[in-house]
Structure formats: structure tokens, C-alpha cells
Amino acid sequence: MMRIPKVPLILGLVALIPFIWGAATLLNGSLMSWGASQFGPRFVGPYVQLFYGTVNLTFMSGILWGFATKARGALSLITYALAAIPMLWAFIMTGGGPISAGMNLIFGFAGLLLLDFAFYHWRLTPNWWLRLRLFMTAVTVACLAIVVWG
Prior knowledge:
The chain is 81% helix and 0% strand. By secondary structure, the protein is mainly α. It has one domain (6-149). Helix 2 packs parallel to helix 7, helix 4 packs antiparallel against helix 5 and helix 4 runs antiparallel to helix 7 (129-149). The mean pLDDT is 96.
């Protein structure tokens, strides 16, 4: 795996902000109160993490769909079908309360990492892709774990 280019790395780090912010507000009541008063209650705690996590899994389906365009033959059908899984998972599995939705998002991001590995193995992603996704998934799952077990 080669070095992650600067722009995808920076954008990836920025994309982690809602997960980190949500975890921070869950762990600090004063920050939660301040954030709710400044941004509204939807943008703190589990609400921001769960909504953003759902959107993020859907976005990642789109990225995998883009990688699927490089596949040929039978692999093409397989990769397009696999690319739809994170979006469908987010749509079907994030209902219910924050604990079940958080747990299902953790499973969704873990499953997404397996798909990232498969697409990388099939040489459909940039060489640095898996390195970025390993880091992003670790931070995302750690932050969501605070919703579930915090």
C-alpha cells in the first residue's frame, strides 16, 4: 500500500468530525449542552453520529459503485451487487433506538471494510485505498462504540 494522497487524506479526516464530535458530546455533558444550544439537538450526541453514519454508509455504496465500473465480466455483476449492500444495510438496519442503530452501524462499517478489502484485492481501488479505509473505519467504529456502550 502506498502513501495516501494529501487531498483524500484531508477530506477523510474532515469526514470523521461528526463521529468524533458526537462521541465528545456524549462523554461531556457541558459540551453536549453547549452544542445543542449552538447547533440544535440533532447535531450532538448519538443523533449526529447515527444520522451521519447512515448517510456515510450510503455515500460509501456510491464510491464502491464507482470502483465497480472498472470490473469486467462476471466480476462486474458481483461488484455492482456488493456495492449496493452498505446503502441497503443503512436503510433497513438503522431504525429502532440509538443502541440498536449504533450497533448495526458498527456492523455496517465492519462489513464495508470487508468490501473495501475485496475491491482492493480485485485491484479496483487506488493502491492507498485500504490504508485510508482501515484508519477511517477504526475511528468510526470507536466513536460509534461510545453510543452503544458509553
